[in-house]
Amino acid sequence: CGLASDVVGDSADVVGKVAVKDLSKRNNLYKDDTVTTAEYSTKYSVQSKLTSGSQLVALSVKKASMAVAGEVDSNSTVDVTYAHTEQVTNADGTEVNEQVIVYEPDELKNMTVYAVVNSDLQTKEKAEAGGKTFIPADVILIANTQQAKELIGLEYSSKDNIHLLLDGTNKSIEVSGLSK
Questions:
Q1: Rg for the chain (alpha carbons), in Å?
Q2: Average pLDDT over residues 145-173
Q3: Is 32 helix (H, G, I), strand (E, B) or coil?
Q4: More confident residue, 25 or 10
C-alpha cells in the first residue's frame, strides 16, 4: 500500500516552492499544495490582482447582511451606493419631514471584490477547510485612488448607510464603512 501519486514523496518536489494552502503536520502534502514562486506571483499574490494606482479598501459587513456577503466571491462586481436622511421643512418652517436620499456615484460602480473575509481574515475556503463556520466580517474591494478617496470620505462624513449592490442581482450588502 503506497502513497497516492499526487502526494509529495520527495522533499525536492517542494524545496523552493510556496504553500498555497494551510499545511498541517498531520496531513499529507499534495503536489498542488505548493507552487513555484513565479506561479505564485502571477496567480496568488495581491499584486497580480492590482494595477498601478490600485489599492485595497476593506468595508465592515453589518450583521444583517452577513448571509448575503457569504455569497460574494473574489472577482465579483459590485456597485457602491449610500443614503442618508435629511430633514425637510416647508417654506414657512412647519411640518418637518424626513427624506431618505440615495446616491449612486458613477465612480463607485463596477468595483471588483478582492475577497470576503471573516474576523480572522480568512476566506470562506480557508475557514471551511479548517472546520470553521464562515461568518463574513469584511468585504475587501479593489479601488483606484479616486474610489478610495470617495469611500474614505463616506466614512468620515457619517453616511453610514452604505450598500454594495451585487451585479446581476437585486441583493445588497449593508456595510458600516471602512474596516478599522
A1: 22
A2: 76
A3: helix
A4: 10
Q: What is the pLDDT of residues 72-130, one digit of tens each?
A: 878 888 988 888 777 778 778 777 777 778 888 899 999 998 888 888 888 888 888 88
Let me know: does 124 contact 46? Beta carbons within 8 Å.
no
- The closest alpha carbon to 56, from 138, 123, 124, 161, belongs to 138
What is the four-CA torsion angle of 60, 65, 68, 69, rounded to 10 degrees?
A: 10
String of DSSP letters for 107-171: GGSSEEEEEEE-TTS--HHHHHHTTPPP---EEEEEE-HHHHHHHHHHHHTT--EEEEEETTSS-
Instruction: Check whether 138 has a pLDDT greater than 80.
Output: yes
Report how far Cα 83 is from the mean position of its chain's Cα atoms: 21
Compute the distance between CA of residue 88 and CA of residue 82 in angstroms, rounded to an integer. 19
The set of residues, in sequence order, having a beta carbon less than 8 Å from that of 21 and lying 6+ positions away, is 33, 129
pLDDT for 74: 81
Plot region of 60 (φ>0 → left; ψ -120 to 50 → alpha; else → beta): beta
